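Regression test case RT-17, inverse folding.

Input:
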């Protein structure tokens, strides 16, 4: 089985619609794909309706969190999207994204970049607006060559010159909310140092004690030494280890299925979940 547990669609900051994403996942030879848009479940219904035969969909979301002044992302899988408290918290995070993006546009204008809110809103479309949309606007203007090139201290990286904070969950609250909704939690790309400051390993231990299920190890932002270090940490803490593409369509060079999760780990994630179940494709 080929299993990719971290992808994004136009429901957040990917370039594939949810329907295109599942079709592309099947074409890439995947057996299982998780749709984990940022703080949003809006793409799930479309993905289900278009799910090709032979492909299983795992519903999820990537939650924006912050601890000790450091941003981090928490992948949540197979939770009940209608659980009221968790749904309210996701809405709070999403609602804060528009003023945050407007703030980044204003900072860029102060830095001499002629980006406009209208440009960013056009790029975001119906998706949950985020930094990649602002970065894409910078690419259009020729300020940077790639979306990744905007995620530097000079521009949009955490604590960068044009960075603006947003409402983010405390990760301990995120774990509690996901668990209450019957879901499973995995700390996304925990040592992606190129994105900015990372959470200390001691905090990962505290998160594990609070019920964190796993950490994402095989990821484009982790080199071989980092992956080995994370596997050792996971073994010490009794955490599951996953691998995922973090696919964003044409906004990143990584391909669907470039990094995958072991079938036994996937089986354990499914076993632990009580809020939702994987959706088998029926040739939608």
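Golden output:
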């Amino acid at each position: 089985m080929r299993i990719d547990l971290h992808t994004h669609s136009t429901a957040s900051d990917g370039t594939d619609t949810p329907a295109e994403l599942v079709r592309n996942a099947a074409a890439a030879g995947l057996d299982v794909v998780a749709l984990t848009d940022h703080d949003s479940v809006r793409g799930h219904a479309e993905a289900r309706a278009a799910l090709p035969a032979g492909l299983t969909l795992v519903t999820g979301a990537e939650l924006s969190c912050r601890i000790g002044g450091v941003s981090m992302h928490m992948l949540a899988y197979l939770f009940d999207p209608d659980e009221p408290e968790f749904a309210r918290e996701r809405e709070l995070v999403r609602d804060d994204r528009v003023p945050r993006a407007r703030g980044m546009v204003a900072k860029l204008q102060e830095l001499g970049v002629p980006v406009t809110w209208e440009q960013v809103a056009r790029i975001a479309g119906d998706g949950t607006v985020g930094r990649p949309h602002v970065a894409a606007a910078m690419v259009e203007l020729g300020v940077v060559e790639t979306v990744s090139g905007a995620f530097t201290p000079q521009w949009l990286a955490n604590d960068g010159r044009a960075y603006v904070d947003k409402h983010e969950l405390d990760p301990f609250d995120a774990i509690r909310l996901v668990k209450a909704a019957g879901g499973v939690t995995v700390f996304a790309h925990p040592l992606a140092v190129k994105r900015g400051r990372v959470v200390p390993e001691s905090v990962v231990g505290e998160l594990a004690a609070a019920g964190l299920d796993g950490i994402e190890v095989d990821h484009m932002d982790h080199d071989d030494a980092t992956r080995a270090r994370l596997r050792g940490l996971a073994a010490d803490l009794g955490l599951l280890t996953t691998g995922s593409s973090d696919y964003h369509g044409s906004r990143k060079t990584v391909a669907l299925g470039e990094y995958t999760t072991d079938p036994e780990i996937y089986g354990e994630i499914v076993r632990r979940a009580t809020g939702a179940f994987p959706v088998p494709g029926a040739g939608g």
